[in-house]
């Protein structure tokens, strides 16, 4: 996957969360029309951010904050993530629980981002 798009209520708040909690890097970029946009990078992928009510075209038909369910793989033990989330005042939605991933079994924990998107952090089991 190259990138995905999240529609968010507040781009700055989203950048702060994904940078501070998940370790992603803010990555401003210029679109094909020369306008400045914001993305978050991790590895070779990125998440482009759309401001709710001012989405870029083309876009999803029902683009809205809080409609995503994202899973991120990690090699860091989940116990370390749970402690990290706790330091940031985040409660687990679920986990650790067994799940099925694209390439096999996972063990996952779940939190929510500022817009209510479900964020799954998983290790391969």
Automatic annotation (TrEMBL):
It comes from the Bacteria. InterPro entries: Glyas_Bleomycin-R_OHBP_Dase, Glyas_Fos-R_dOase_dom, GlyoxalaseI/FosfomycinResist, VOC_core. It comes from Psychromarinibacter halotolerans. This is VOC family protein. PROSITE patterns: VOC (PS51819). It holds the Pfam family Glyoxalase. CDD domains: GLOD5. Residues 1-124 form the VOC domain.
